[in-house]
Specification:
It is built from six helices and no strands. With 153 residues, the protein is mostly helical.
Length: 153
């Protein structure tokens, strides 16, 4: 049987984790990364504590399934998504290697590939997640109508 202190610690831990995932998901909507996935994961965690979060999980899941099905309906979409993920991987490797600042760079040297290897690593990690999601989406949703995919959510 859990003590009151354990329950409080669990609640605080879930809230910190949930809000961290929500904030990271929102940031990753504009930065490299799986923003919607992080946002959904944060809402799933918060839904254990809040009814408002629970109400938002299913609609977001349906939209995510529909988007996944739409993204793998045609070969050009699959090819462009894969190319974008591979390009992100190459950019991450380039960023991680930190080549010298080129002569044509008009800003201070400190602005060249700012963030260093952590930025490059996050680009590579995001690209790997993207490639895994492309494979998963293709295997699960290719040939399935987007409306049907959303209904399965």
């Amino acid at each position: 049987m859990a003590t009151k202190g354990t329950k409080v610690a669990r609640r605080v831990g879930l809230e910190v984790l949930g809000w961290t995932l929500v904030v990271a998901g929102i940031a990753a909507l504009v930065l490299p990364g799986p923003g919607l996935l992080g946002l959904l994961a944060g809402l799933v965690v918060l839904s254990q504590q809040y009814e408002w979060a629970e109400r938002r999980v299913e609609p977001m899941k349906r939209r995510a399934f529909r988007a996944a099905a739409e993204g793998v309906q045609t070969w050009p979409r699959v090819a462009m998504s894969t190319l974008a993920a591979l390009l992100m991987t190459a950019l991450g490797v380039f960023w991680t290697l930190q080549p010298e600042t080129p002569g044509w760079w008009p800003f201070p040297d400190s602005w060249w590939l700012f963030g260093g290897w952590p930025t490059g690593a996050s680009l590579i990690f995001s690209a790997l997640i993207a490639l895994a999601l492309i494979v998963y989406s293709y295997r699960r949703w290719h040939g399935v109508e987007p409306q049907e995919a959303a209904a399965q959510g």
